[in-house]
């Protein structure tokens, strides 16, 4: 049976999620035998800039939001990249703190239960297309099916 730890009247300090245990590096033979503590940051917790994307009813339509976001992120999204027969109105607000692709995927996922479910298509030349959910992102596959 484990022995319970002694209780203390001192408060316990909260540990930050970014805290990383120190690693002990042994000294080279023939030098100072004292171990030297070295703090190594965790790569997943590095201070990387977080992209923030907002949407609100002021944006009016999904197409306008995606156009603004694409421009901000350095992607191309023009009228011909909206392969849907209608604009989808924005009726609520949301805030996304992720990369461009994840923010677009999360926003477009809100159409899954609507009359016109959509999906985003991301291309290596940094072009974003929005197509009906049932349509493939590969344009050549869609052309060969219609022939």
Portion in strands: 15-25%
What is the first-to-last residue Cα distance?
Answer: 75 Å
Uncertain stretches: 1-27, 39-48
> Which geometry do the CA atoms define?
globular
Q: Please bin the fraction of helical residues.
A: 10-25%
- Rg over CA atoms, rounded to whole Å, is 26 Å
Q: What is the residue-averaged pLDDT?
A: 75
Counting DSSP H or I runs of 4 or more residues, the number of helices is 3
**CATH topology term of the domain at 53-146:** Phage tail protein beta-alpha-beta fold
CATH arch. level architecture of the domain at 53-146: 3-Layer(bab) Sandwich
CATH domain class of the domain at 53-146: Alpha Beta
* Derived structural class: alpha+beta
The total count of strands amounts to 6
Give the topology string: H per helix, E per strand: EEEHEHEEH
For the biggest β-sheet, the strand order reads 1-2
* Largest sheet properties: 2 strands, antiparallel
Could you please describe the fold and organization of this structure?
It is a single chain. By secondary structure, the protein is α+β, with helices and mostly antiparallel strands. It has a domain at 53-146: Phage tail protein beta-alpha-beta fold. Helix content is 20%, strand content 16%. The strands form 3 sheets. It has a two-stranded antiparallel ribbon. The chain is globular.
């Amino acid at each position: 049976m484990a022995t319970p730890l002694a209780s203390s009247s001192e408060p316990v300090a909260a540990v930050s999620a970014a805290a990383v245990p120190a690693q002990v590096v042994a000294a080279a033979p023939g030098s100072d035998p004292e171990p030297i503590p070295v703090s190594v940051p965790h790569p997943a917790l590095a201070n990387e800039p977080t992209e923030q994307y907002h949407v609100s009813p002021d944006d009016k339509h999904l197409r306008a939001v995606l156009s603004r976001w694409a421009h901000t992120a350095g992607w191309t999204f023009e009228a011909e990249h909206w392969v849907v027969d209608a604009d989808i109105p924005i009726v609520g607000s949301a805030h996304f703190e992720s990369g461009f692709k994840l923010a677009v995927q999360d926003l477009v996922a809100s159409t899954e239960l609507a009359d016109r479910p959509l999906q985003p298509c991301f291309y290596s030349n940094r072009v974003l297309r929005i197509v009906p959910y049932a349509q493939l992102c590969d344009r050549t596959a869609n052309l060969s099916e219609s022939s």
